[in-house]
Amino acid sequence: MLEASPDILSRLGQTLIERKQAAPGSSYVASLYAKGLDAILKKVAEEAAETIMAAKDGQPDKIVYEVADLWFHSMILLAHSGLTPQDVLNELARREGVSGHVEKQSRKES
Amino acid sequence: MLEASPDILSRLGQTLIERKQAAPGSSYVASLYAKGLDAILKKVAEEAAETIMAAKDGQPDKIVYEVADLWFHSMILLAHSGLTPQDVLNELARREGVSGHVEKQSRKES
Amino acid sequence: MLEASPDILSRLGQTLIERKQAAPGSSYVASLYAKGLDAILKKVAEEAAETIMAAKDGQPDKIVYEVADLWFHSMILLAHSGLTPQDVLNELARREGVSGHVEKQSRKES
Amino acid sequence: MLEASPDILSRLGQTLIERKQAAPGSSYVASLYAKGLDAILKKVAEEAAETIMAAKDGQPDKIVYEVADLWFHSMILLAHSGLTPQDVLNELARREGVSGHVEKQSRKES
Q1: Within the 50-109 window of chain A, which residues sit less than 8 Å (CB to CB) from chain D?
Q2: What pTM did the predictor assign?
Q3: CATH number, domain with residue A15
Q4: Cα separations (Å) of D18 from C60, D14, D53, D59?
C-alpha cells in the first residue's frame, strides 16, 4: 500500500479553516462549526471514548479508525480556535528537544 | 519561528516503538507501557478532558499543549497495539479521497 | 420546593430493568438497550463531558442537569449489566465505614 | 447482606460540604478541593473512563466500584459548586414526572 504523505495534516488543517467560511449545511464540518464550541468538544469526548472501546476490543483496524476520528475532531477544534495541526507538531518537536532548525539540518544531510 | 517537519510524527512513532523494549523505570513512556493498556487509556481520557477544559478556558497556548498531550498518548496507544501514526495518516488520507499515489502525483506537479 | 425522596434511585433502577423487556422503539431507554453496550458507554462519556463543560461555564442549573444525565445513563449501564443503583449505594456506604447494620441502628435511634 | 439506606447520598453530600472548610492535607477530598475545579473535573473524566473500561471487561464488581467512584467525584463537584446530591435527585424525580408531593402521597398509601 502506498503511504500518505505526512503533509496530509497541513492539507486537512487548511481545508478545515476554509470550511469555517462555508454555509452551515454544506458539509459535516461546516454544520459542526455552526453548532459551536460545545458541540465540537462533545465530539472530541465521544471519539476519545470510542478509541478506548476499540482498544478494549483489541481490534487494530478499529483503533486506527477511532484515533483518526479523534485527531480529525481535535483538528476541527484547532481550526475553530484559529490554530493549526502544525502548532501541535511544533509543540511535539519542542518536547522532543529537537528545534525545527536542527531538524531541517538533519534532513538536508540525510 | 522555524517549523517542525511533519516527519516528527513518524520519528515519534519510531521512538515509541523502541521504548517498548526499554526497562520500565527508564522513561515516562516505558513506565506507562509497564502499567498496561488500561493505564494508557486512562491517560487518553484525561488528556481529552484537559483539551476540553483548555478550550473552555479559551487559551490557545493551552489548547495546543493539551492536543499535543492527547496526540502523544494516542500514539503510545498505537505503539502498544503494534500500530503507527502513519496508519492514522493513511486513514485520514483515505477519507479525504486522495490515495497516496494521487497525492504523490499532485505534489510532483505543484 | 418539595424534596424528592431518595427512593427515586431504586424506583428508577426498577423502571430501567423493566425497560429491558420492552420493544426497542417504545422509549429512549429501550432504544439505547437495543443499540447495545457501546452505545450506552458512549452516552456515559458524552454526559461526563457535558458535566465538565457545564462546570467550566459555572452554571449551577446546568451542572445539576448534566450530573442527572450522567447518573441516569450510568444507571442504564447498571441495569444493562444486571446491577442496581442500590449496589452503588452499598459500595458508597461500605467506603464510608458504615455498615448497613450500623446505619439502620442509627436511623432507629435518631 | 444488609442494604445501605438511600440516605447515604444526603449524608455523603453533607460530609463533602463540611470538608470544604477542612485543611487541604487533612483528607483526599480536602486535597482535591485545594487543587481546584480542573482537578475535580479531571477525576470525573478519569472515573467515567474507568467505568467504560470496567464495562468492556464485563466485571460486575468492577462496574459497581467505578460507578461509585464516578458518583462520588460528581458529588465533590456538586459540593464545590454549592450543590447537593438532593438537587440531582430532585431533577431525576422531575423528569420522571413525579413531584415530591405526589411521591410522598403514594408512599403513605402503599
Answers
A1: 52-53, 56-57
A2: 0.87
A3: 1.10.287.1080
A4: 19, 6, 32, 34
